[in-house]
Amino acid sequence: MKAIKILCVISALFLVSVSDVSAKSADNTATTPTTIESEKEFVQNVGNEALKIINSSSQVSTDLKKLLKENFAIEKIVKYVLGKKNLSHLNNDEVSKFTEDFMDIQTDAYTKIFSNYKGKKVVFTVTGATPKGESILVSSTIRVSSNKPISVVWQVRKGKIVDAVVESVSTREILRQNIIDRVSNAGGDIKKVVKHIK
After folding, report:
1. How far apart are CA 19 and CA 81, in angstroms?
2. Does the pLDDT at position 123 exceed 50?
3. How far apart are the first and last CA of the chain?
4. What pTM was estimated for this model as a whole?
5. What pLDDT digit, counting tens, does each position of 61-90 carry?
6. 2-195 classified as CATH 3.30.1330.10
7. Are the C-beta atoms of 179 and 193 separated by less than 8 Å?
8. Which of 2, 8, 106 is nearest to 53 (CA)?
9. Contact indicator for 42, 156 with CB cutoff of 8 Å
10. Nearest 5°: phi and psi at 57?
11. How many other β-carbons are positioned within 10 Å of the β-carbon of residue 53?
């Protein structure tokens, strides 16, 4: 739980086979050294910006929400969290409402957690990266003051974060399980969950 909370300080995951040589070359761009280095730099920059928001922003909630929208693949995350079965029962307006509410809930939660770390020494360091299908897994550590560093692996696809795995625990899996539990408690009615998600 502590690891998940620390993740929030910095913040909220496909193999393709082709026979044509030129197509295969295009699909492998995610594994080139240049792409790997750019995704490492991307994650480091997101972490640095998050730290800046924590320590100096006068409107943490607004700036954090902007950071999430610009750097996280929110639509992909929401679709994964809801799951295909639930999505099939929702119209576009309901999905849009859930997405906006999802963003507000995550932003509010992170803002409250951020307040606990304001003024403390938080160090975010990218330590490496490896390709996985069409994604790049960027490894990092987060250290708050003199506490033991927490391991976070960010799954990045085409310049957007789609998951963050904290000490081997996927945050989007946690969010998905939360929706599964809510739907179960609502008698299987995803529409009721969406309506009262906030």
Report:
1. 33
2. yes
3. 22
4. 0.79
5. 899 899 999 999 999 999 999 999 999 999
6. no
7. yes
8. 8
9. yes
10. -80, 140
11. 21
